[in-house]
Amino acid sequence: MIPAWLLLGSGLGALCWRPPWLGDGRAPRAAVATLMAAAAAVWVGSFAVLVNLIAAGADGVLAACDALWRQLLQGNLAWWQTAAMAIWAVALPVRGSVAGLSATRRSRRLLRAMTAVATGPVAGERRALLIPGLSTPAVSLGITRPVVLLDAAFWEAAAEHERDIVIAHENGHRRGRHALLDVASRLLAGGLSPLPGAASAQQSIRRHLEALADDAAARRHDRRTVGMVIARIALSSKPAAGLGAAGACPWRVRRLVAERARPSWRDRLAAGGGGLALAVMLLVVAADAAALLGPFWGKFCPL
């Protein structure tokens, strides 16, 4: 069985130290998956360590499960055990939930405010609206049913290929459900802050989600054209905010315009093997911690 402390250490290591392939945009999908798995590994690993610590001394997993649940239900946990569980619950699930719910509420409020002033839908596009004075060329808002909002002045002045690239980028966000991934990353990072690497990992996830949307646009146009359009919009005075709420435009343009080096077998092994190892440890330790706490039904841990 994989020790809980090993999962916890692996998650912390992946958050605090990231190999080059996790930062240069070579594998944005693998980067998002690995960073989110690393954050989840810290959550599950820390919980499993706590459960093992509280249930120490029990004769086997099922006995530990039964003893822990009985003590919890009867209020017989020692003060330090209760305090440890309360601290973990407040530090991770509560703080993380607050961060995720705050992001969701902000998105909903902004979407309601923007749709109220929309001048009309975009011809030929599903769930795309023109907004006067948006201050950014385009943005996707909404968690479960994203809507693409486009600045009316930009849309009127943009060339046909610029319109197509911006729409393809935002549709990449919408079809990829990037808003859900962003909220999940905020929840995970919110519970881990101010641990080293938590905030930077969340920003890296957002940056790589932008890279995935850029790649969606690049499938309709060549990468250099997409990169030049992003650079031109980002440097323009109107709209001032540029393309992409996550920023990092120089990084995005560089990965699109520069000649792409083919990933070596070491990069592929690191990207696939590292993420797979974290996922396997996460599942194994999560199952072990769940067994240690016990089910809410059955002949063990009766309620």
Structure characterization notes:
- By secondary structure, the chain is mainly α.
- It has eleven helices and four strands.
- The protein has helices at 4-16, 28-54, 61-74, 79-116, 152-157, 160-175, 178-192, 198-218, 223-235, 249-257, 265-293, and strands spanning 120-121, 128-131, 138-141, 147-151.
- A four-stranded mixed beta sheet has the order 1-2-4-3, sandwiched between helices.
- Helix 1 runs antiparallel to helix 2 and helix 2 (28-54) packs parallel to helix 7 (178-192).
- The chain is elongated, with a radius of gyration of 23 Å.
Describe the secondary-structure layout.
Layout: H1 4-16, H2 28-54, H3 61-74, H4 79-116, E1 120-121, E2 128-131, E3 138-141, E4 147-151, H5 152-157, H6 160-175, H7 178-192, H8 198-218, H9 223-235, H10 249-257, H11 265-293
* Major beta sheet summary: 4 strands, mixed
Distance N to C terminus: 28 Å
How are helices and strands ordered from N to C?
HHHHEEEEHHHHHHH
Structural class: mainly alpha
Q: Averaging pLDDT over every residue, what do you get?
A: 79
Strand content: under 5%
> Helical percent range?
55-70%
